[in-house]
Design goal:
This protein is of the alpha/beta class and 407 residues long. It has helices at 5-9, 37-50, 60-80, 94-106, 128-137, 154-160, 183-192, 212-215, 240-245, 280-294, 298-317, 344-353, 366-371, 388-404; strands at 18-19, 22-23, 25-26, 88-91, 115-119, 140-144, 165-171, 197-200, 219-223, 234-238, 256-259, 264-266, 322-325, 334-339, 356-357, 359-361, 377-381. Bound molecules: 4'-deoxy-4'-aminopyridoxal-5'-phosphate.
Length: 407
């Protein structure tokens, strides 16, 4: 069966809007994705019908809100392939998930002589929290190199793994280049030296079928807004044993079992990590996004997105002066490039006038961009609703850029 992208597009109301007198071509999905009606409806239904604070309430609305919130946790557990809903902690997004693990799991367990291993491919949110822990504890941050295609140098990664490695944190998919890392092998190698592994799944969740149990990672974190869900919500998956041994990070309501001035006992996982009133509507919206994605034929989605990346790459290379940044053998979702003689910021501004939304800059991954001797790129990033006709629009807009710059 073919993939009916026009059918999919009808699920996303924003795709009908105009930008000036042009129809919108949205190619900034790696920054944030658009939301299907199912997500918008779930949020509206919650606020118009069941809004109440969750847990412990005995009245009808509170029971409904609690069921919807905990139901969403179950949906996310199934979405990532967790063994149980107790392994899913609601957080604000990937950034908060990584910081939670850095401060609550890693910080108390490392000191001078210990090492934390990341790669050169990481988003700033998977670099800075580890620099902070290194500064706080005296542990050393090690960085595995990348090659000229934008793939992690696996020899170097293995060389850096040792008895001193206490923790490994890696992107599943790079946001700046689209590289899919061979994480299953990397997790196994890290485990051989006894190091737990966190995967930053922000860019993987919208493109790959996830299975944290099969991957055997210790932690996995995603942002709702990149997987067609709302902003301000995401999840941290943690193996139950890891979450059990991890102390809470924020204190407050919801995360306790009992409080006296002499002694406070904590709630069970995952509630001990969810202090205060959570983003209830966000969690429900994210649950709807997970349901939406799970209702699709995933092999067809992947084939469609792979075709978009392949065709965009070919078409871009037909334009004189284009250099593709990031040519990994395994890629998804992203085509980053430079156009000789034009600053990416100018490219982005001019194509916007043609209704085409792309992102320009260092994409919160400055070391990656430095690696290619650049300060910025233009990035077209694709979602399941993008079409080959939209690639035509991007190429036409870039021809316009070349004309304006008299290239
Ligand atoms: N990691 C990667 C690979 C990302 O692409 C992003 C978002 N650009 C993040 C982490 C941070 O996600 P958030 O801003 O949603 O916390």
């Amino acid at each position: 069966m073919g993939y009916d992208v026009n059918q999919i597009r009808r699920d996303f109301p924003i795709l009908e809007r105009q930008v000036g007198d042009k129809s919108l071509v949205y190619l900034d999905n790696a920054a944030t994705s658009q939301k299907p009606r199912a997500v918008l409806d779930a949020i509206e239904r919650y606020y118009t019908h069941s809004n109440a604070n969750i847990h412990r309430g005995v009245h009808r609305l509170s029971v409904e809100a609690t069921q919807a919130y905990e139901g969403a946790r179950q949906k996310l557990a199934s979405f990532v392939g967790a063994d149980s809903a107790e392994e899913v902690v609601f957080v604000r997004g990937t950034t908060e998930g990584i910081n939670l693990v850095a401060q609550a799991y890693v910080r108390p367990r490392v000191g001078p002589g210990d090492e934390i291993l990341i790669s050169h491919l990481e988003h700033h949110s998977n670099i800075v929290p580890w620099q902070m822990v290194a500064r706080q504890t005296g542990a050393r941050l090690r960085v595995a190199r990348i090659n000229e295609r934008g793939e992690i140098d696996l020899e170097h990664f293995r060389e850096l793994l040792s008895e001193s490695t206490r923790f490994v944190a890696l992107a599943h998919v790079s946001n700046a280049l689209g590289t899919i890392n061979p994480v299953a092998d990397m997790i196994q190698w890290a485990h051989e030296v006894g190091a737990p592994v966190l995967l930053d799944g922000a860019q993987a969740a919208p493109h790959l079928e996830l299975d944290v149990s099969r991957l055997d990672c210790d932690f996995y974190t995603v942002s709702g807004h990149k997987m067609y869900g709302p902003t301000g919500i995401g999840i941290l998956y943690g193996k139950r044993a890891r979450l059990e041994e991890m102390d809470p990070w924020e204190g407050g309501g919801e995360m306790i079992r009992s409080v006296t001035f002499e002694e406070t006992t904590y709630n069970e996982v995952p509630h001990k990590f969810e202090a205060g009133t959570p983003n209830i509507a966000g969690a429900i919206g994210l649950g709807a996004a997970a349901d939406y994605l799970r209702s699709l034929d995933w092999a067809a989605v992947t084939a469609h997105e792979d075709e978009l990346v392949e065709v965009a790459t070919q078409r871009l290379l037909e334009l004189p002066g284009v250099r593709i940044i990031g040519t990994a053998a395994q890629k998804t979702g992203v085509v980053a490039f430079t156009l000789n003689g034009v600053h990416p910021h100018d490219v982005g501004t001019i194509v916007d006038q043609e209704g085409v939304a792309v992102r320009t800059g260092h994409h919160c991954a400055q070391p990656v961009i430095d690696h290619f001797g650049l300060s910025a790129t233009t990035r077209a990033s694709f979602g399941l609703y993008n079409t080959l006709a939209e690639i035509d629009r991007l190429i036409a807009a870039l021809r316009q850029v070349r004309k304006i710059f008299e290239l």
